[in-house]
Design brief:
The complex is a heterohexamer, with three copies of chain A (about 450 residues) and three copies of chain B (about 120 residues). By secondary structure, chain A is mostly helical. Helices cover about 65% and strands about 0% of the residues of chain A. In chain A, helix 3 packs antiparallel against helix 4, helix 5 runs parallel beside helix 8 and helix 10 packs antiparallel against helix 11. By secondary structure, chain B is α+β, with helices and mostly antiparallel strands. In chain B, strands 2-5-1-6 form a four-stranded antiparallel sheet. In chain B, helix 1 packs antiparallel against helix 2. The longest helix of chain B has 14 residues. The chains are: A mainly alpha (about 450), B alpha+beta (about 120). Chains in contact: A-B, A-C, A-D, A-E, B-D, B-E, B-F, C-D, C-E, C-F, D-F, E-F. Strand 2 of chain B pairs antiparallel with strand 2 of chain E. The complex binds adenosine-5'-diphosphate (3 copies). One adenosine-5'-diphosphate sits at the interface of chains E and F.
């Protein structure tokens, strides 16, 4: 029943336990199953690592890139959006994405149901992994909670330094509900549209990065450019902070990627080593791309390449050998480099922190590339039963579905949030900076 | 004290930052024991540099300089100017300028002393 | 013999192994017991996470809130106090709190004994958990060591920017000995006064937060206000640092709370999810409280709410369902908000970094609230055998005992330290800043 | 077959599995052996912790110590060097250090072979621990990868603020190949020269710290002093960053030391508690040494002492009791204090960030001291079969071999790198700062 | 050069920070190729803002401004003042001030040139 | 306006940083509603401090000061100087200095007003 290909199928298994024809015998087995402390320990560690990616990781990475006057605004938005996502997750998010009672018919390909307000989840509840093991359901819920939280925060990269805090909050609530939860269900839950299609997404290349990147781009277009962009000087106020954030993102990403194995097994080990080498390649090849195009290899280039590598290896983490991962990381860095430094200025949109240019583009490179590096001839763990062409085609379809869904969902969420709360701050507030205008504080009082 | 012929002068010197210690020591040699220093940005013949952040290029035309403000008795002014101009000179563009202005009154807050004695 | 209610009863069990009537048979079992690597792994991870809370977590959280000229002083005090606590812990602290040979009679309700200088502890020694499992005793000792260290460091929040480094060190040594170790014993060790009374404190609401908060307040009163307080401007010199600290504290707090399950089991999972949602609620409700009282929702408000939520959920982490935890986090944030922004200015004491206002007050809210959210009717894990009223009463008594003990112990420690080392720095040193005056350095040389 | 003394003998065991006479029966057992998830979880956690030490840990520790104008240069060098080391590691590093096919004869004492490009490593491959357990080989490879990466980055401490980025990269590639991999093999792999001699090095005192420290000194001598050293003012631009880095290094070091047990067992617990108390002693005794020599106890002193303690306890982590570790940490801090503050200024070399003064010297103190604290009479875990004198002698020989090898290897690597890439930046670039000159960016745009 | 009727003037202009680039470019048009810029805090009619940190309210009365110091030949002074006042004008409170002072001596450190030729 | 007998004066006061609020308030009492403040480093009789970083000792001879620049009508100048010197006085070394210079022209950018009305 379970496919032999490795996918983040916990939801599948978790739900198998309580739904469908397999109900009787499986439940009996499941109730008896007790989490191995080693797997539970690993998954808690992984969950905490993803939390580290959000606060302080992403808050610093993004915060360092904006101007001094908007530092607190960015950090607070990242933090508050994550908090909101956590609360929504335990109320209706987990149910929509991974709940035990998926609606029957076509609807069930897009959302699930049940477990509203975590009803039915107890200390003894477990979620299945990819083998015969289980982990505590509270741990699985927490792990997935952090994914929803960071994805919502990533979207902010397109709209920082100009949108009201209240708008951001309303946007997030709607966006998670109509964009994130359905996409997570489609990709990671059995019965989900893309899951059933056989799309590979080990740790969220599509659900997290393409989704967040495209949403950031659409939101950037809807909310418009920052005053003064692109003529005014807007250098990052502290690349030191961005570098700290980069380091913490990398560190936390092991929770993201190796945690997506749901067990402390060999797949986790593979995901871990891939998350080292793809990232290393990403960091160095971005700098190399700069050098080749006649620029200086830069610190921000290094950071950007690290993220580009991490993003690209995300769907491939347990779906590739180390050298496939290196190729993916290097290639992603080069492609993102050209999109961000060559194409973006020409197109003229203000995806302020390159959430699209790196997460969106890197995510697409990774998603499609996973179809290639998965193949055994290049050292991947696939068994070759689905040919490279077929797999790549599936990946492309999944990417297109995710892009469309994210774009439409974001447009709806952004226009609604704008209608309710006003959207942008006043021009005067934008000049003064959101820290003072929106929060009444300054980041630094040296 | 006659206006326009101030017995006390304000010397404003714009110099390269790494010259500060040398200048300060040399001025001590001339008997100058006080000055006020500010970090400033200078714009002039000396070109700045280019910064690039993810493809966004910024020409930075201003270079960091130090501004020294030294109030001295009129008779010392020329020696001070001379000293600074010798010590701060590296022969390369951007060495800076020295301006002399007249000061009408000077006062030491602590003691209320005025004119030369205030310095 | 072991109560069915969940308490941090490691000491109980650990000591059961080598004392009392049960000695013979238990020891036999214990010697044979080998830690499950999963539980050992989790508890080491948890220990490291608490370390992360101290350095750099708390050092940054506190450091960011003071003026530039005292930054290093705060960070060094936090670090050095933690180091001192670690050394004292292995010399006599572990013995006083959890040693195997508690004095007989009333004394045994307040302190334990034995295991001085860790004598008798070997590579094979184990400490019991709440089930039949064991963990390595060195791991248990390390885990508890970090609790002592961070509690001592938290107290500094009341007295920063004015007290001599030497005074702080002497104060800490005395305070740990007469305040922290006895309270830890009373609450967490079998035979301890409050433990036997049935007080619930999953991860240290009473031992760590009420204790540190009250001690900070008393120390603030004894050492007096900072020069210029409250008329002079004293804005936080870097809310960026405070925000980083907040993130690291949250991340590390999972070690604190989920680690207090002593195993990587379902209770740990429950403590984890509660530590997410209570905190999320805390962060958002503090900002909401600001908005409702006509202010701007602020970054520091967000950070404060996060801490208020974390503090309140600490005693409840494994003693509440997720929605009980949300209530607790939100309520704690609101109460702390009013104490810190409305009441403190009126009372006029200089609890400089609101160690009392947030840790003390939030700890009290959490300790008492745990008596409520523990009940099954609100989704708590309690079995209802102790009624809500009775449990709340026990919690209140425990709070009052902790407050009194902390206040008296702190007064003694503070006056002694002052007598030996002088207490405050000179007015000139305070003006110049403790970084230069006490340490001969400046935090920033841009 | 396996010595009873505890050494980091994974390579031994790993290779035993696939080489030598024991092949047939061992392989059978090995193929069957499946990693306990608890051990795998712990080793992944440990690996991630070492990553945290590099980025952002070491990048901040080193970065805070340099002048503002070189901040990004330092952080980027640390990051890029680590990335390069990761890529080289999977290409030929792992093979040279721990590959399954060591050359026969004398050569095999210095390097290993095989497993080039990780050939032969699969999801099911395992590496043996010190007991009968195994961990996933990908995890072991990742863990050891981080050691190579951080050691290469540590060397930069001797040559920051003046050497070209390209020179640093070329130097690193050569240095790892001729210095690090052979020394790792000599100390940690069965058949390795120093391993067979019985030298104790639990977590890398010799391989990492003596090696990096000596290499930094030699590189500092070859590349020369910074312009203006020692007459010009060069205070650390942000001790705040250095303090954050210190905290992260300490936190991550638990992965380093307790991870070197390769299991989540009692040895890991011992290594953990030693890593607490030796470090605590180091931090406090450096400040004490300052006070005794008439200075102010300083924040940087505290940080330096923490590192000195960590370095010294590294070879001793699982080879000492807690009070032996305290002695070692305190002693190392005092010795390093005198070397760094008294001797260095007299000798006049520009080991800019005291990589030699702390890592080299502390590593030597630790390596030799391990021969003492290992003994049972002082609470160490040794069985006394090798007398103290004999063990200390072995340690001294190992230190001398490591120093010589590192010095020669570094000289070759440095001169080669200089020849190829030029070595130092121009005087003008050095004045302007490497951030602008080499990377075209500034760390702070407030 | 006659004292009190300096052939060289120091123009001090306090402006809103975001006007710097425009002003600099406009001045280039008038032939001004050098100036020295400082970050300052201005106090005046323009009100500041309020900051609140955990209930502690601080009124910040000073607003960030840039101070331009430009030494020019006397005959250029009025054109410079005019140019700045036009370009830096936004019509809202806090646009800033321009002060003109007499300079008695000017010197280029690199070459030793004085008076107008030093600029 | 006659050159050399300026009807407007520039008062430059170097004071201890923590005196700013008091001085500003006292000046409001004298009718002064505008000034420009810079953070500067002062060198003088007041000794600095020593910093030590891992054995490297640095003598820091400069101490942080604030520089107030206040342009006032000539007839107010002496009262302003007096007020500052009273309020900023702590009686200890390093209290600072006050210098008065003549200003030839003043202009409010927003309105184009000049001389006293520009202030
Ligand atoms: N007209 C001016 N008014 C005020 N400051 C000036 C003027 N011209 C130059 N400066 C200052 O002097 C510095 C050096 O001038 P620059 O033209 O670069 O080189 P040089 O000193 O060799 O003439 C500038 O950076 C600026 O701070
Ligand atoms: N008397 C003064 N002396 C020196 N600087 C002044 C004086 N008055 C104002 N300024 C400077 O000019 C700036 C603008 O003045 P302000 O009164 O706010 O508005 P406006 O320029 O519209 O008159 C102030 O922020 C301050 O820096
Ligand atoms: N000759 C001078 N020119 C300019 N500024 C001076 C001069 N002498 C002193 N100062 C400034 O005044 C400040 C105070 O001077 P100092 O000699 O320390 O004490 P005092 O004010 O008691 O005479 C110095 O820090 C410096 O900023």
């Amino acid at each position: 029943m379970l496919k032999q290909t490795l996918k983040l199928a916990a939801a599948l298994m978790g739900s198998t336990l309580v739904t469908g024809a397999a109900f009787a015998q499986d439940t009996a087995a499941a109730v008896a199953a007790v989490p191995n402390p080693g797997n539970n320990a690993w998954m808690m560690t992984a969950t905490i690592l993803v939390m580290l990616m959000i606060l302080p990781g992403l808050a610093l990475f993004y915060g360092g890139l904006v101007r001094t006057k908007n530092m607190l605004s960015v950090m607070t938005q990242v933090g508050a959006v994550a908090c909101l996502a956590m609360l929504i997750w335990v109320m209706w998010g987990y149910g929509l994405a991974f709940g035990p009672d998926a609606p029957s018919g076509v609807m069930g390909q897009f959302i699930s149901g049940g477990a509203w307000f975590l009803s039915g989840v107890t200390l003894e509840s477990t979620a299945a992994t990819f083998s015969d093991e289980v982990i505590s359901e509270f741990v699985f819920i927490s792990f997935q909670m952090t994914f929803a939280a960071i994805t919502a925060a990533l979207v902010l990269g397109g709209i920082v330094e100009r949108v009201k805090f209240s708008t951001v909050m309303v946007f997030t609530a709607i966006w998670l509900t109509i964009t994130y939860f359905p996409i997570a269900h489609m990709v990671w839950a059995e019965g989900g549209l893309l899951f059933d299609m056989g799309a590979l997404d080990f740790a969220g290349g599509t659900v997290v990065h393409i989704n967040a990147g495209v949403s950031a781009l659409v939101a950037a277009l809807i909310f418009g450019k920052r005053i003064g962009y692109p003529t005014e000087r807007m250098p990052p106020h502290s690349l030191t902070m961005t570098m700290i954030g980069t380091g913490l993102l990398w560190v936390g990403w092991f929770g993201f990627n190796a945690g997506s194995a749901l067990e402390a097994d060999g797949f986790a080990g593979l995901a871990m080593i891939n998350t080292f080498v793809a990232t290393a390649a990403g960091g160095l090849f971005w700098m190399l791309a700069e050098a080749v195009s006649g620029r200086k290899g830069s610190a921000l280039g290094f950071c950007s390449g690290v993220i580009a590598g991490l993003v690209a290896v995300t769907p491939a983490a347990g779906n590739s050998g180390p050298f496939g991962a290196i190729l993916l990381g290097a290639f992603s860095a080069i492609v993102c480099y050209f999109i961000v430094t060559e194409m973006k200025p020409k197109l003229g949109f203000d995806d302020s922190l390159d959430a699209f240019g790196i997460h969106g583009v890197g995510g697409i490179v990774g998603a499609i590339g996973t179809g290639i590096v998965y193949q055994p001839f290049i050292g991947g763990p696939g068994d070759g039963s689905t040919g490279m062409g077929a797999q790549v085609w599936i990946q492309i379809v999944a990417v297109l579905v995710a892009i469309s869904w994210a774009a439409i969902g974001t447009a709806i969420a952004a226009y609604l949030a704008k209608a309710v709360t006003g959207g942008r701050v006043t021009a005067e507030a934008e000049r003064e900076g959101l820290d003072l205008a929106e929060h009444g504080e300054r980041a630094y009082n040296y | 004290m006659q206006k326009g012929d101030a017995s006390v002068k304000l010397i404003i010197a714009i110099i390269k930052p790494f010259k500060l210690d040398d200048v300060r020591e040399a001025l001590e040699g001339v008997g100058i024991t006080g000055m006020t220093v500010s970090e400033v940005k200078g714009y002039g013949r000396q070109k700045g540099h280019t910064e690039v952040y993810r493809g966004a290029e910024y020409q930075v035309t201003m270079v960091p300089k130090l501004k020294l403000e030294i109030v001295v008795p009129a008779d010392l002014a020329s020696r001070v100017v001379e000293t600074i101009s010798q010590i701060a000179n590296t022969g390369s563009i951007g060495d800076g300028k020295i301006f002399t202005l007249g000061v009408e009154d000077a006062l030491r807050i602590r003691t209320g002393e005025t004119a030369e004695t205030a310095l």
